[in-house]
Design brief:
Shape: globular
CATH topology of the largest domain: Rossmann fold
Number of strands: 13
Oligomer: single chain
Structural class: alpha/beta
Distance between the termini: 42 Å
Strand content: 25-35%
CATH architecture of the largest domain: 3-Layer(aba) Sandwich
Number of domains: 2
Radius of gyration: 21 Å
């Protein structure tokens, strides 16, 4: 079942085209990384998915039109963003009670069990919490909602490394299962690439690459080329080349098999390196 299906999704703000004909399909139980530089259209895409902005084209989320059926859709969707704001005066216990009163699928006991593993106490006011603790509180609220789709928009932006790692470890260990679908928008690729099942590279409102991580591992190869093999490697047409200490690192799209092994050390590229190669190549082409 397609949890998200978009065809020709477009959104413009005056003369600025934020989304330019985006096609997207996300199956149930997948974890999609929506990756792009600042201004690529990530947040606009998520706002369309969440019914927060009108759009052109076709879009269905859990079989519903987000703009026209948002009330029904949000019973099955939860989200965390880096700009989410909680009232600074409210106490944690009051926040849990309020959420239990307004959301039919919120399990207060589950939220309390999660918070017991943190330093957050029911008597704390939001203004007494650090940014990392506020993120933990948001996560507790979301994990206690029986949602089919979780949308994360730069959820760990501004947090230190320890909090970022704890956030994703908790999300995967305590929340995610194959009946839930996650969409994570970020430009900090390195911290999430190990959890993704699919990636979509977005740049200037357009899809540059959409691929499953298993297919990515089969399709792309990165080679640390030995100095004496540089000319031979370049003759095979790498899509990107960068310099490392004593080696040229070249990235290849498909094919070549044993010929690459003769050039140097072969490995699967990281999603971050692939993003730089694909999106950076697009940018260089546009500049020319």
């Amino acid at each position: 079942m397609a949890v998200i299906e978009a065809r020709g999704l477009r959104k413009a703000y005056g003369g600025n085209v934020a989304l330019d004909g985006v096609d997207l399909r996300v199956e149930e139980g997948r974890i999609l990384g929506l990756i792009g530089p600042n201004g690529a259209g990530k947040t606009t895409a998520l706002n369309a998915l969440l019914g927060l902005t009108p759009y052109e084209g076709e879009l269905r989320v859990l079989g519903r039109d987000p703009w026209r059926e948002r009330d029904r859709l949000m019973r099955d969707v939860a989200c965390i963003t880096d700009v989410a704001v909680l009232p600074r005066w409210i106490r944690v216990a009051q926040l849990l009670a309020y959420t239990a009163g307004v959301h039919p699928r919120f399990d207060r006991a589950r939220a309390e069990r999660f918070l017991e593993r943190t330093t957050i106490r029911p008597t704390h006011k939001v203004r007494e919490l650090s940014k990392g603790m506020v993120t933990q509180l948001h996560l507790a609220l979301v994990m206690a909602i029986d949602a089919r789709l979780l949308v994360l928009d730069e959820p760990t932006l501004g947090l230190d490394l320890l909090f970022r790692k704890q956030f994703y470890d908790t999300l995967l260990g305590d929340y995610y299962d194959k009946s839930r679908t996650l969409v994570v928008a970020t430009h900090q690729v390195e911290e999430i690439e190990h959890v993704l099942t699919d990636v979509l590279f977005l740049d200037r409102g357009r899809v540059v690459l959409e691929i499953g991580t298993e297919a990515l591992e089969e399709r792309y190869r990165e080679v640390a080329v030995r100095p004496e093999q540089i000319a031979a490697a370049r003759a095979l047409g790498p899509i990107h080349e960068r310099q490392a200490v004593g080696r040229s690192i070249m990235l290849f799209d498909g094919g070549h098999g044993e010929r690459l092994a003769a050039l140097g050390e072969v490995r699967t590229p990281s999603i971050a390196d692939l993003f730089v190669a694909v999106v950076g190549g697009q940018a260089q082409g546009a500049a020319r």
